[in-house]
Amino acid sequence: MTDVTAPLKTTRSGPAPQELKVVPVRHWGRWIAIVVALTALVGLAGSLAKNDNLHWDVVGNYLFAGLIFDGLATTLWLTAAAMALGLTLGTVIAVMRLSTSPVLYGLATLFVWVFRGTPLLVQIIFWGYAAALYQYLKIGIPFTDITFFQVETNSLLTPPVAALLALGLNEAAYASEIVRAGIQSVDRGQTEAAHSLGMGPALTMRRIVLPQAMRVIIPPMGNETINMLKMTALVSVISAHDLMSNIQDVYAQNYQVIPMLVVASIWYLALVTLLGIPQAWLERRYGRGSSTQGQASPLRRMLGFATGGSTLRPGRKGAA
Amino acid sequence: MNVPMVRAEGVRKQFGRLEVLKGIDLTVEQGQVCCLLGPSGSGKSTFLRCINHLEKVDGGKLTVGGELVGYRRHGDTLHELREKEVAERRRDIGMVFQRFNLFPHMTALDNVTEAPVRVRGVSRTQAREEAHELLRRVGLADRAGHFPAQLSGGQQQRVAIARALAMKPKLMLFDEPTSALDPELVGDVLDVMRALAADGMTMVVVTHEIGFAREVGDTAVFMDEGVVVEAGDPRRVLTEPEQERTRAFLSKVL
């Protein structure tokens, strides 16, 4: 690299740089892959459209049926309530796990161990059949006969309530890990700065640490919400009247299993798509003050790719 | 009124087995500027953090404004303060950090108003008025709506000073406030600190800026390996030090 001028001189003889023709890299392999994938997709779509066993008429009949909307309503409130319960309880458990008290830490760890370590399906059935374990729920003084309040377990733990408890407690275990990672991602200097301004631990957590932790918490919690929406289908085992329960009720009578599952899939897909909107909004909201730019949405990426716009995928440039 | 602002008698601190402070004696009178100098690892930052109880003192006696740091005295017994009480004591002590530690999710203005509104219970409008005035004083009147990431290091540090001043502290602690700054940005921050000292603010400054210490400081304290090696008038300590250790340090940094 000592003699830089020599090779420059030899190229002087050709045309000026701006007159040269530029040939971009041709990605032949990529074009072949696109053709293969699109052919497979069109073939699959065609065979599905022509398949009489799919009974699109049944799908059409049930897609907007009242029973389906009843189930959808249950699925939606169950998702929202379970996520609210999970996030609230999860935050408490996350703070307990970060506590210096070994007892609080131990209890929180035990909770996460139990609820993350057993299958959700088992937990759902367990809550659904809790009456087999305790016939009555009593509030009183332990180890005495004094009872302030007593209720039959089955009248309190109806299938939707049991479903909510099962999903919410399970979610709390996962959410607590996400929240803990979020809290730990905030620089210690932030806490020290807040403390030096006379802010107490609770105020510091609420105003300084958690809002910053949100940036780390929101993307995985968005995934958790999407997962939760789909996992609510599991509560059909205790007939909680969610979308899946009602779908099963229908195909138990008319035996149109596949068309009814298509109806369910269409609705789950639609709801999951809708959930992406508030997630994107929240990510922007809590991303304030950070210099990282928001990623282009998947739809824009797809359209950009179709028109050959490679500017949306700067990461690939260097790799190609 | 003649209670010293900060008084340390044999203050000790250790991290595990490592003894960081081995008996610090130091007095800062009201309205004075005390500059702590010394090589890294000498314990000067740790001592500064002990003053507002970000670090717990392990031995000796440390008082701020006559009150024992971290404890409440009841006759002959000392009660350790609850976190809430510690927070109350800290209101009167402002602190400026080496790495600014501005709240990145808030604008410069919100950084300044946050504590007065939430801790002191000042009304939002009044806090905003005072914050604008403070930002003007540190030369950032036009940056109120900017987020920290949109400001230079020097600007961030000046916002941090305004944020600390918004609590109307009686004592300001500076932990190497210019060490993380590009050389050409140091001047602006030092100017703000100079003005603050001229206003009569009591300040304890951990710094490597010998010029600032000589010009603004009322006392210079040279620390090494957890002890005070030499303390006194900065013009004497920093130009004709008595101790060999101080001379060796100054010859390296000057």
Describe the structure using short key phrases.
heterodimer, A: 320 residues, mainly alpha, 14 helices, 70% helix, flat, disordered C terminus, B: 254 residues, alpha/beta, six-stranded mixed beta sheet, globular
Give an account of the 3D structure.
The complex is a heterodimer of chains A (320) and B (254). By secondary structure, chain A is mainly α. Chain A has 14 helices and two strands, in the order H-H-H-H-H-H-E-E-H-H-H-H-H-H-H-H. The model of chain A is unreliable at 306-320 (pLDDT under 50). Chain B is an alpha/beta fold and 254 residues long. Chain B contains nine helices and twelve strands. The longest helix of chain B is centred in the C-terminal third of the chain and has 16 residues, at 183-198. Chain B starts with 5 loop residues before the first strand and ends with a helix. The mean pLDDT of chain B is 93. The chains are: A mainly alpha (320), B alpha/beta (254).
Q: Based on CA inertia axes, which overall geometry of chain B fits? A: globular
The helix count of chain B comes to 9
- Following the backbone from N to C, one meets helices and strands of chain B in this order, namely EEEHEEEEHEHHHEHEHEEHH
Distance between the termini of chain A: 27 Å
Strand order in the largest sheet of chain B: 8-9-10-3-11-12
In brief:
Chain A has 320 residues and is mainly alpha-helical. Chain A has helices at 5-11, 28-50, 56-63, 66-97, 102-117, 120-128, 153-156, 159-185, 188-196, 201-231, 243-254, 257-286, 298-306, 314-319, and strands at residues 136-140, 147-152.
Task: Furnish the topology, listing elements before pairings.
The complex is a heterodimer of chains A (320) and B (254).
Chain A: H1 5-11, H2 28-50, H3 56-63, H4 66-97, H5 102-117, H6 120-128, E1 136-140, E2 147-152, H7 153-156, H8 159-185, H9 188-196, H10 201-231, H11 243-254, H12 257-286, H13 298-306, H14 314-319
Antiparallel strand pairs in A: 1-2
Chain B: E1 6-15, E2 18-28, E3 33-37, H1 44-51, E4 59-64, E5 67-68, E6 71-74, E7 77-80, H2 83-90, E8 93-96, H3 108-120, H4 124-137, H5 153-165, E9 171-175, H6 183-198, E10 202-206, H7 210-216, E11 219-224, E12 227-232, H8 234-237, H9 244-253
Parallel strand pairs in B: 3-10, 3-11, 8-9, 9-10
Antiparallel strand pairs in B: 1-2, 1-4, 4-5, 6-7, 11-12
Helix pairs in contact in B: 3-4, 3-5, 4-5, 5-6
